[in-house]
Amino acid sequence: MIDRVLSKRIVPVVVLDDAENAEPLAEALLEAGLDIIEITFRTPAAEASIRRIAKRYTDMLVGAGTLLQVEQVERAAAAGASFGLAPGLSREVVTTAEKLGMPFSPGVLTPSEIEQALALDCKLLKFFPAEAAGGVKMLQSLAGPYAHTGIRFIPTGGITSKNLQEYLQIPLVAAIGGSWMVSPTLIRERNWSEITRLTREALDAAAEVTA
Fold this sequence. Notes:
Helix 2 links the parallel strand 1 (about 10-15) and strand 2 (about 35-40). With about 210 residues, this protein is α/β, with parallel strands linked by helices. The protein has a single domain (about 1-105, about 160-205), classed as TIM Barrel (Alpha-Beta Barrel), CATH 3.20.20.70. The strands form two sheets. The chain has a six-stranded parallel sheet. Strands 6-7-8 form a three-stranded parallel sheet. About 45% of the residues lie in helices and about 15% in strands. It has helices spanning about 1-10, 20-30, 45-55, 70-80, 90-100, 110-120, 135-145, 165-170, 185-190, 190-210; strands at about 10-15, 35-40, 60-65, 85, 105, 105-110, 125, 150-155, 175-180. The radius of gyration is 16 Å and the shape is globular. Helix 3 (about 45-55) packs parallel to helix 4 (about 70-80) and helix 4 (about 70-80) packs parallel to helix 5. The protein is built from ten helices and nine strands.
């Protein structure tokens, strides 16, 4: 999973209210060249959306986000999610994901939470809410005491096309999570062409930093 994330460096964070939009959204992302998606467990349509994409687009890395409870992890795994994420860190949730063989990225914000994640052998961590928590400067400060541990971050929250390159220039940042290219408005309007355009634009920006 880490290799796939590192190759693209963009994780679209999706909220789906209607599972009927799952496949066309996946197609819009794939057309842009992005084969990773995080579908958040914030709506009743999340589980069905993951199942539909995982079944039809077997080459797509489908993640389940906002996994706050053990039963959500179990449902996400049963639906075909390849990985899981959460805004915070729950030992029970992480342990359940490990038992199910699901790579999991808990959310961290402080040094203590980073150390708790390391104790659970989690090395790819969601940094949330990134901008509100100090953004680039905070991540640069955390690099000093923790870079040698091998952790990598996926900062999420407040990241847009305007600041994604600042984050991706930090060595500890594996990828960024964002929703501007897959906003609920664009999905409700079924503006797949605009989603493709914005996603391709984000991938090009990420590639400039990686090159």
